[in-house]
Each structure stands twice: as C-alpha cells, then as structure tokens.
Design a protein that fits this description.
29% of the residues lie in helices and 28% in strands. The strands form four sheets. A six-stranded mixed β-sheet has the order 7-2-1-11-18-17, with helices on one face. The two termini are 38 Å apart. Bound molecules: flavin-adenine dinucleotide. Flavin-adenine dinucleotide binds next to α1, β12, β15, β16 and α9.
Length: 389
C-alpha cells in the first residue's frame, strides 16, 4: 500500500493521456499520483494503431499542435530514454472501387496537408498487398508511427524516475464537498489532492456523472483483431479507408437531438460502423480493424463474433493475404467529443479542484504536446494554447 495519501495532483487513468500528463506534471515539480485500475491494460491506447496524423489539422490551433506533436515525437525517444519504434511512413487511404477518386479527394481539401491522389497501379506499387480490384485509387499522406504501448510505458517509467507514484486501484468515486473535489476514493484507500485530473478515456463520462458533472465526453466500443508476428508478410504502409464512417457516426450521435440517447446506460447497440484498416508493428504483428459500436453502457460487451466477421470480410477485399490469418479479438472504449477541434481539456466550469484531459482527437499525436501545455498552464496560470481551448 502507498505511504502517502495527499498529493499536489491526482491523475486518474494510465492510458496515453494520463501517462503523458503525469510525466509533464512531475516535471513541473508537483507531487503526483497516477491511479490506474488495470495492471495489464485493455484500454484504447493498447489497441491503437499508433498512427501520428500530423497532416489532419483543420484549424490553425490544431494544425499548430499537430506540428508540435510530430516535432516532439522526433526527439521523444531521447527524452524518455526508450525505443518507441518511432518512424515516418506513408499512410494510404483506400478509395473503394465504386467511389469517385476526385470526389473523395475534394473531401480532404480542408486539412493542413493535401493528399496525393494515386492511381490503383501506383497504390499497388507502394503497397503490393493491396487488391487492385477493390479500389478506384488511393490517397497518400505523410504520417508518423509509434508503438503506443511502448510510448505509454516509457512515459510511466520516466514519470517514476522523477519521483511520481503509480497505484493500480480503481477510482470508485470522487471525494467532494459542495462543488469542491478534494480527492478520490479508490477500492482500497482515500487520497486527497487540491487538483484531480480526469484522464479516464471512455469511462470519464460515467465517473463524472456519479458526482453530477455532465461532460461533453462520449465514447464508442471499438473492436479490433490482432495477428501474431508474421515473418514472411510485410505491410509497407498504414492502410485506412478514405471514407471514415466513424467520424460521421460520432458527429451524428453527439448532435443536440441525439443527446437523449446518452441519458441512460443502455446495453442496446444504437449503431455500428466498419472502417477497414491495417497496421503492422516492427515485430511483425498486425492490428486489423475496426468496428465502432455506439452503446451507451460503458460496461456493455459488443458482439465480437459479428465484428470479427465484418473485419475479415472487409480485409479479404482490400488486403486478401491478411483475411484468413488466425486472430485474437479485442475490445476497448474510445472517447470523443462533439467537435474534434474542442477536446475536453481544462478546469470543470462551476467546480473547484477538478480538471479534464479527455476526448482528444488523434490522441497518440496530440497527448504529448497538449500535456506539456496543460502542465505549464497549471503551474504558471497561463498558456497560449490552453487559453484558446
Ligand atoms: C483500433 C483503434 C485504432 C486507433 N488508432 C489510432 C491512431 O492511429 N492514432 C491515434 O492518435 N489514435 C488512435 N486510436 C485512438 C486512441 O488509441 C485513443 O484515443 C487513445 O489511446 C485514448 O487514450 P486515453 O488515455 O484517453 O484512454 P485509454 O487508453 O482508454 O486510457 C484510459 C485509462 O483510464 C483507466 N481508468 C478508467 N476509469 C478508471 C477509474 N475509475 N479508476 C482507475 N483507472 C481508470 C482505464 O483503465 C484506462 O487504462 C485508435 C483506437 C482504436 C480502438
């Protein structure tokens, strides 16, 4: 059990957001406790592709943060003293045979980097595992890639080296009096702090709800398939669909007229979409995805067999060599907000002692620079980026 029960900051959640933030806070000389419920994570960070979409900014603020993010990653291995498998490689966005390539390209003209439109032939030259008959073209973008679990572990190790503490305990309730959060109650202890920061991903919404704080944090249940390391198979790029259905779905279920859906924790599936993608890590293992289900009960279990069938079906079309390999199925929650350019970051309005650091878009890329801005702002009371957010 932990020696201390009082800290300058308590961070709830040891995924990429909590781990990066805890590290940045300890660098600001705070005494920080990071609370994570699972020693072996089954969270969104664990099942992430690890892509760094630094081309995808649509506002000056986000484009600036994404640029800061990729520059930070270019030196992060040195700073954290660990191999993160950082590399820069192509992202290929596949355009279905029935879609018109020029029309799909036009949907990308609001991003800070314009993709290159490839013919089917050039796409297959870049990525020979692609099935030319499934495509009418592809978009190519410069992208970064890391091993998300290695980044997470490296942040936590650096945090501990600087004196931070990690406890594997479930936070069951926020401790409060009137509108002041004073710490947290876990499965075994009560910890006190003047500053509690929620980095609990898809579970942030229900944790806040328990004390009557309604947040703009939503979540989906994601299903992904994992393939064990393959020696004789090499995917050269990250593959995703040019038409991402997940973004449309997230926009739809967060409109004011859909808000009633989130008023109960229902185990019913409201909608599911399939976005066929694949990524290979340096050890040869692969993730194939992804099915996103909207189910408002965060504890619900989605129909993993259905998801496996859908992913296999889609992958067999786009990347036929991967379609029949043995897989393991995994599920996690992924948080999002109504406006991807407006993550839930900063102090909770109307309350004291509680802060949010959730619902980021392109979280693997954004969490490191934003955690730095957040920690600077908390320590000094000001930061240009935090002011705009
Ligand atoms: C298939 C897939 C592919 C993806 N690909 C990309 C990609 O290429 N690039 C990208 O940027 N993003 C990608 N994402 C999204 C990205 O992975 C997530 O947005 C990100 O990892 C979320 O990090 P987080 O820290 O907010 O949440 P999580 O990683 O979910 O961490 C939250 C942590 O909080 C803990 N927790 C929750 N409640 C409590 C509690 N009460 N007490 C204690 N601990 C608690 C949980 O156990 C968990 O470990 C992908 C996601 C999926 C599913």
């Amino acid at each position: 059990m932990n020696k201390y029960t009082t800290y300058d900051c308590i961070v709830i959640g040891g995924g990429i957001t909590g781990s990066a933030l805890a590290y940045e806070l300890v660098k600001q000389k705070y005494r920080v406790l990071l609370l994570e419920k699972d020693r072996f994570n089954q969270n969104a960070t664990t099942y992430s592709y690890g892509g760094l979409a630094y081309w995808s900014g649509t506002t000056d603020l986000m484009s600036g943060l994404f640029q800061e993010g990729i520059e930070l990653y270019r030196q992060l291995e040195r700073e954290l003293e660990q191999d993160l498998e950082f590399r820069e490689l192509d992202l290929l966005l596949t355009i279905n045979a029935q879609d018109h390539p020029v029309e799909i390209l036009s949907q990308y003209n609001h991003f800070s980097v314009t993709p290159e439109l490839l013919t089917v032939e050039s796409a297959c030259q870049l990525e020979p595992l692609l099935n030319p008959h499934a495509l009418s073209g592809a978009l190519k973008l410069p992208h970064g890639h890391v091993h998300p679990l290695k980044v997470n572990a490296a942040y936590q190790a650096a945090f501990k080296r600087l004196g931070g503490e990690i406890c594997y305990e479930l936070v069951t309730q926020l401790l409060y009096q009137e509108k002041q959060i004073q710490g947290v109650i876990t499965s075994s202890t009560t910890y006190y702090s003047p500053q509690t920061i929620i980095c609990s991903g898809g579970l942030s919404r229900s944790l806040l709800q328990r004390v009557g704080i309604s947040s703009g944090i939503y979540f989906n249940h994601s299903d992904v398939l994992k393939i064990a390391p393959q020696k004789d198979l090499k995917l050269k790029s990250i593959i995703m669909p040019a038409r991402m259905k997940r973004f449309d779905l997230e926009s739809r279920v967060t409109q004011p007229e859909s808000e009633f859906l989130w008023s109960t924790n229902s185990p019913e599936t409201i909608a599911s979409v399939v976005d066929i993608g694949a990524v290979q890590f340096l050890d040869g293992s692969l993730y194939l995805g992804q099915v996103s289900h909207i189910i408002t009960d965060p504890q619900a279990v989605s129909d993993a067999r259905w998801s496996e069938e859908k992913i296999r079906e889609g992958i067999s079309q786009v990347l036929p060599f991967l379609g029949s390999l043995p897989v393991t199925r995994h599920q996690c929650l992924v948080a999002f907000t109504r406006d991807p350019n407006r993550p839930q970051v900063g102090k909770v309005t109307g309350w004291e002692g509680i802060f949010l650091f959730c619902g980021l878009t392109s979280t693997i890329l954004l969490a490191p620079p934003l955690a730095r801005h957040f920690a600077t702002w908390l320590a000094n009371g000001e930061d240009e980026v935090m002011k705009e957010l």
